[in-house]
Predict the structure.
Amino acid sequence: MRSKLFIGLLTLLVSVSLVAVPAFAQGKSTDKKAESSTSKGDTKAKTELIDINSATKQQLMTLPGIGDAYAQKIIDNRPYHGKNDLVQKNIIPKATYDKISAEIIAKQSPASGKAEKKETAPKSDKKDSTSKKTS
């Protein structure tokens, strides 16, 4: 009689553990999925860099340590060849730059610079050729 009771309790314990273990394992994996999805969202937000050559004053002021005065100073001293120009040109302190360097970029606009150079060169050639004809 005792052996039947013992076998019944043992069977019940094994059955419960077989059902409970996968349930706990699934709960842990969903927590990891939730954590990984939030970290992916953070990564997406971090990859949106602020271009110091084209950002508005309000966009610059969202950076840590950049207030109204520094934002205006950044705008007034454009264009920047690299983001480290902010420190090299004494626009912001090194400590502030260290806070924001991962969040900014200094994009170049090569199309506008090249177009200006190309336009000025042919115009000067045309002027020379016309001045030669009139001479």
